[in-house]
Write a structure and sequence with these properties.
The protein has helices spanning 2-21, 29-32, 36-63, 71-84, 93-105, 112-143, 149-167, 169-181, 186-201, 204-232, 239-252, 264-275, 280-308, 310-316. The mean pLDDT is 85. α1 packs parallel to α12 (264-275), α5 packs antiparallel against α6 and α11 packs antiparallel against α12. The chain has one domain (2-316). It has 14 helices and no strands. The protein is mainly alpha-helical and 317 residues long. The relative contact order is 0.17.
């Protein structure tokens, strides 16, 4: 409870700082949107395109570990997790719920459901950072600005280090032995051991050929969504600017210090897009619209699915 209150406090504080520091004018929000049809086009990304791409890759990550699940069930879990995860920290709080749902249903495959989500996220963030790096290099060539190149390079190196650590046998033996010896919270330590074992044994190389195109398509679609949002505000920046900035903002938003990344994301939008000459008000409202499209819209679908099928989710929960 205390942690939730702290995160809520951070969320409000960062949002208020952004609003007052950049003198955000809420009266301009409706006047700023000039091309509504771009928003209607963008809605198709989180409602139709991303669920099909994202859940097909999740299905594959489960399948290579021997866990077979219907695509319809995974889509339902994903939507409902987004709805229930709105109150959780950062923008990836719903992942914890996805893990919980899939692990509950496939109790005989402890750790494998969690491993599928974690590996999916790690590869996703790696490719997202690489996309951002490509965009940053193009920006550097076009304008001479290289502000995001070094940050994204560090993120890529860090994620690669995590992958190497997961596959390191010496480290695996040490951590496994430690988890086995833990006497308190035995259930938790046993699950963590199963999860870590599944991560260590996960056939990453075997998965990449099929999943990389899907993950790239998913991450690229979120950047296209941001591009369409700014077009709705009549801000026609070259696409490579969004390619450089949005991946970094998405990665920053996963830092678990605020509720659903609120405040962190808005501040990042205002800071980075202001450098490109975008009005602070537009950048702020673009951030809210971007979040509404990618998270709140599918979360609304998740709420409907949850209410329609309460019995199923009460069994899982």
């Amino acid at each position: 409870m205390k942690k939730t209150l702290v995160k809520l406090g951070v969320t409000i504080a960062v949002l208020l700082f952004t609003i007052f520091h950049f003198d955000i004018d809420f009266d301009l929000v409706f006047n700023s949107i000039q091309n509504v049809y771009f928003i209607f086009i963008a809605v198709f990304i989180p409602v139709l395109i991303n669920p099909l791409i994202g859940n097909n890759r999740w299905k594959f990550f489960l399948k290579v570990q021997g866990v077979n699940e219907k695509i319809g069930t995974l889509i339902k879990y994903n939507f409902v997790s987004l709805f229930m995860g709105l109150a959780l920290p950062a923008t990836t709080g719903s992942d914890a719920l996805r893990i919980y749902f899939i692990e509950k249903k496939h109790n005989d495959y402890k750790g494998r459901g969690g491993a599928s989500v974690i590996i999916e996220r790690l590869i996703g963030f790696l490719l997202l950072a690489i996309l951002g790096l490509v965009g940053s290099i193009i920006v550097s060539i076009k304008t001479g600005s290289d502000k995001t190149i070094y940050i994204l390079s560090i993120i890529i190196v860090f994620i690669l280090f995590v992958f190497v650590s997961l596959k390191n046998r010496w480290l695996f033996t040490k951590i496994s032995n430690f988890l086995i010896k833990v006497k308190r919270f035995k259930k938790v330590s046993n699950y963590l051991h199963s999860l870590y074992q599944s991560l260590n044994l996960f056939p990453i190389k075997k998965s990449l050929k099929y999943t990389i195109p899907l993950i790239l398509a998913f991450q690229f679609s979120t950047i296209v969504c941001g591009y369409l949002v700014f077009l709705a505000f009549a801000v026609d920046l070259p696409f490579y600017n969004h390619l450089a900035i949005l991946p970094l903002i998405q990665i920053i938003s996963i830092i678990p210090v605020s509720i659903s990344g609120f405040g962190i994301r808005e501040g990042s939008f205002v800071y980075f897009y202001r450098i490109l000459g975008v009005n602070e008000n537009i950048a702020f409202f673009a951030s809210l619209l971007y979040f509404s499209l990618l998270v709140l819209t599918p979360a609304l679908i998740g709420m409907i699915l949850y209410l329609v099928d309460k019995k199923e989710f009460s069994r899982v929960i």
